Amino acid sequence: MENRPSTRLGNSLNGRHPGPRERQLPDNNIPPPPLLPPPPPQHERSPSTSYHAKRTSRTSGGTPPPKRPRTGNEEQWSRWSNDGGGRGELKVAPDWSGNETTMNTDHGDEDQYQRERYFGSNSTPTPSASMPPPSTSLTYRDTENEYSLAHAKWGLRREVVMGFSHCGIGQMYPWQAECLAMSGLLAGESNLVYTAPTSAGKSLVADILAIRKVVNERRKAIIVLPFIAIVQEKTRFLKKVLEKVRVAVPKRGRWDKANLWKHLNIIGFHGGSKARMGWKELDVAVCTIEKANALVNAAIEDRTVNQLGIVVFDELHMLGDDHRGYILELLATKLLCLTEANIQIVGMSATLSNVRVLATWLKAQFYECAFRPIPLQEHLVYDNNIYSYDEKLVAKISPSEPKELKDPVTNAIVSLTHEAVKGGHGVLVFCESRSRCEDVGRLLVKFMPAVNEEIREERMEIIRDLATTSTGLDPILEKTVPAGVAFHHAGLTTEERDLIAEAYDRGAIKVICCTATMAAGVNLPARRVIISPRMGRDFLSPTMLKQMRGRAGRKGRDTHGENYLCCRKEDLGPVKELINAPMPSIQSCLGGETGSLKRALLEGIATKLATSDDSLSEYMRATLIYHTTPEPLKYLKPKILDAIEHLKQMGLISEDRIQGYFHATGVGNATVASGLSPEEGVFLHDELSRALMNFNLESDMHIVYQFTPIHSSTTASVNIDWKLMREEVEKLDESGIRAATFVGVSPAFVNKMAQGGTLREDSPQNISKARVYRRFYVSLMLRELLNEKPVHIVAANYNIARGFIQQLSTTCKGFATISGTFCRVMGWTGLAVLLEHYSWRLDMGVKADLMSLARIPFVKSVTARIFHENGLKSVEAVSASNVEALVKLLELAQPKKLRLREAEMGKMRGRLEQRAAVILEAAVTIYEQDCKDAAEE
Ligand SMILES: Nc1ncnc2c1ncn2[C@@H]1O[C@H](COP(=O)(O)OP(=O)(O)OP(=O)(O)O)[C@@H](O)[C@H]1O
């Protein structure tokens, strides 16, 4: 039976009639009626009234295009592109010759359509490489509706328009069309900086500009996003939009008679990505900030940077980020200096206040609008009262009987969540810490509405999916998911987070309790968003609050979004300040600590953009800090001189006094080529030089140490538990101890620290020493992973978040590539080859004897070991096995399988059978390929 919060809104009205903004909830056991009356009008914007574009371009001004009745042609297009969109649904669209064509939006049928267009209806498919390109003709355009993506004005190829339509976008919002129509943008002649509220549809403007560059002009595009999750999401989106687009591969020699046609290469680059393609092959690179910077450096070094047509900076406010903002600034500065390459720069954000300064800096057109497709209702909640942001009482929440709901904030969270879920809506609850997410999740379970058998089964399916992940079923999720509640924070593995996000997206999970990282990291909107004003002990920043508030309201699913900022009465002062705080203006982070300036100068010198006094000052003039500092030269000059001196002392640059120019040394070039900061470059150089002299291959300890990412061994990411480290070091055999000594780790020092010693990081030597110990500590964890210990066991052993361990396993491969690049630029080819040789083991996460098996999908780590121990030692042996035998082994490999009840195990078996069938089929294919390869040899 459903357990409901005993809280009832309005109980405290004490007999008086609820006012128009107050509604009473019944006191019986009937589920509560809607908690809130309609929102205060001043916070509500309807899509039509909220359109308010403020255009301040330096070119001709413009008013929003007038509304006019839709023509028949528009109707056809919008039917084709906007509604339904299910696979295989028949749509009507005008064909390229202006006639009406009945066609099918199923991609398979689009192929058929193309074939028929070129070869007649009886033609058979031909290989794509020799086939003429898909429609490049612009004549089929919708000539009347300028908001339609098919309008000739936007110059998008038919396949692109179809791709967008497939993603639910057929028409632009008026502001998007107005922004794109600003002079010089479509022609790629001017840069663009624009700002619009969250969910306003900013991405489409940049996407259209990028796609035009790639498809129409055949230049490359880089799209820069701050977090891995959104890089992955954007890569998936662009792949879907551009799936059907083929472009000409230029003729290579005079014997090439005709152009070949290829699909576009859209590649996601981030710390954990294993992209095989590089700058040369890609068409669109969707990157994290660091990867984008490294790509541009490589392109400059290659002298192919003129192939780059556009760089899009999504979330431009990241410029102000203390840790990574300066890399964004540095990247934009380099692009501004590459005047001859003619690269279009596009930047956007929802939370910028000094956009004009940024537009001036980026030599960009500036566009600002306040459009929000889904109106927002915003509330402040304290002491069981709900107020509008202009302090009018909207409703009351009555106090509750249960002890755990005595606290008014918890009571409000539970009541508001219950009400939204009861109405069938999704809820995001932003909490102040990871543990609070889990606590609130557990509490909510008791008050979630009852659901039917079908939904219960769907949720059990999620439990089964979670149980088959590498970490097994989390005990808290096991309790919360059946009630439709989950939590989402950095402590979970990516696999878990993806499963939860996906289940929430399809409505199987109704509530996610999450930390602030989700506000900016994952695009999961909700009808109702409940927000704690704190992050840890501190209050949220206005930017973060804005991001969270903006998550309310799903385009296409909700008529409006609601957010509730729930605080304690004693926090009211600072919370009101927070609500009314203007968005902070973005400040450059380049001048803060000299580390960032050093990196900016090193990269300028290594890429030869700034080698002399003149070019250096030109380079510095292109930075944001130059534009935002009152007397830039006076302020910057001493800092620049200081940074240059440091770089010289670190051995990263040298100066030719006679010729009057700077150049990067080998280490400097290797540092820039590997995308490292000057400090990281020097540290890695020291580490690799030591390895070059003494490489210990007796056991895998030394090699694992070399693959441990140096970013995971900073103070911010890991704290050594010295007692634990002592235990682990004591377990090492002689070869392990020798490896430890080679890298600079002394067991005696570890013992001293475990007994209460201190290691003060007060000098460069001590900083470096602490770094080595931290790296070694992390390498012990990585070694366990490579020795097939499951992520959750390693995490538990080291009392560290599962997310950290899983990230470690995904980033070590990327770091191996970084080390390889470093060695190659240094000319240490032997070491580079050695690292490369061992790095492929990192892909598999298994010991050498299992490497062959690990080529089979789903046969990794523990599973591979169980297969091996049970006689399936090779791909051939697996290919000769059968589904039943494989299911038995897969059952053995399930972590924490006992957590699932008997009935659940039955259903899980079905899942394992499917998996076993895939394994068997893959093993047969791999084995056949191996035989073919052997025969050819
Ligand atoms: N013209 C359009 N027609 C229909 N849907 C659109 C249109 N433009 C954007 N969308 C959809 O609106 C949603 C939000 O768009 P988008 O992610 O671009 O917003 P945003 O302004 O970048 O928001 P945020 O600042 O939160 O990232 C997406 O699902 C997108 O597909």
TrEMBL record:
<dbReference type="InterPro" id="IPR057220">
    <property type="entry name" value="DUF7898"/>
</dbReference>
<dbReference type="InterPro" id="IPR050474">
    <property type="entry name" value="Hel308_SKI2-like"/>
</dbReference>
<keyword id="KW-0347">Helicase</keyword>
<feature type="domain" description="Helicase ATP-binding">
    <location>
        <begin position="183"/>
        <end position="370"/>
    </location>
</feature>
<feature type="domain" description="Helicase C-terminal">
    <location>
        <begin position="408"/>
        <end position="620"/>
    </location>
</feature>
<dbReference type="GO" id="GO:0003676">
    <property type="term" value="F:nucleic acid binding"/>
</dbReference>
<dbReference type="Pfam" id="PF00270">
    <property type="entry name" value="DEAD"/>
</dbReference>
<dbReference type="GO" id="GO:0005524">
    <property type="term" value="F:ATP binding"/>
</dbReference>
<dbReference type="InterPro" id="IPR011545">
    <property type="entry name" value="DEAD/DEAH_box_helicase_dom"/>
</dbReference>
<dbReference type="Pfam" id="PF21099">
    <property type="entry name" value="POLQ_helical"/>
</dbReference>
<keyword id="KW-0547">Nucleotide-binding</keyword>
<dbReference type="InterPro" id="IPR046931">
    <property type="entry name" value="HTH_61"/>
</dbReference>
<dbReference type="InterPro" id="IPR001650">
    <property type="entry name" value="Helicase_C-like"/>
</dbReference>
<keyword id="KW-0378">Hydrolase</keyword>
<dbReference type="InterPro" id="IPR048960">
    <property type="entry name" value="POLQ-like_helical"/>
</dbReference>
<dbReference type="InterPro" id="IPR014001">
    <property type="entry name" value="Helicase_ATP-bd"/>
</dbReference>
<dbReference type="InterPro" id="IPR027417">
    <property type="entry name" value="P-loop_NTPase"/>
</dbReference>
<feature type="compositionally biased region" description="Polar residues">
    <location>
        <begin position="1"/>
        <end position="14"/>
    </location>
</feature>
<dbReference type="GO" id="GO:0016787">
    <property type="term" value="F:hydrolase activity"/>
</dbReference>
<dbReference type="GO" id="GO:0005634">
    <property type="term" value="C:nucleus"/>
</dbReference>
<dbReference type="Pfam" id="PF20470">
    <property type="entry name" value="HTH_61"/>
</dbReference>
<dbReference type="Pfam" id="PF25453">
    <property type="entry name" value="DUF7898"/>
</dbReference>
<keyword id="KW-0067">ATP-binding</keyword>
<dbReference type="GO" id="GO:0006281">
    <property type="term" value="P:DNA repair"/>
</dbReference>
<dbReference type="Pfam" id="PF00271">
    <property type="entry name" value="Helicase_C"/>
</dbReference>
<keyword id="KW-0539">Nucleus</keyword>
<feature type="compositionally biased region" description="Pro residues">
    <location>
        <begin position="29"/>
        <end position="41"/>
    </location>
</feature>
<feature type="region of interest" description="Disordered">
    <location>
        <begin position="1"/>
        <end position="138"/>
    </location>
</feature>
<dbReference type="GO" id="GO:0043138">
    <property type="term" value="F:3'-5' DNA helicase activity"/>
</dbReference>
<protein>
    <submittedName>
        <fullName>(Perigord truffle) hypothetical protein</fullName>
    </submittedName>
</protein>
<feature type="compositionally biased region" description="Basic and acidic residues">
    <location>
        <begin position="106"/>
        <end position="118"/>
    </location>
</feature>
<keyword id="KW-0227">DNA damage</keyword>
<keyword id="KW-0234">DNA repair</keyword>
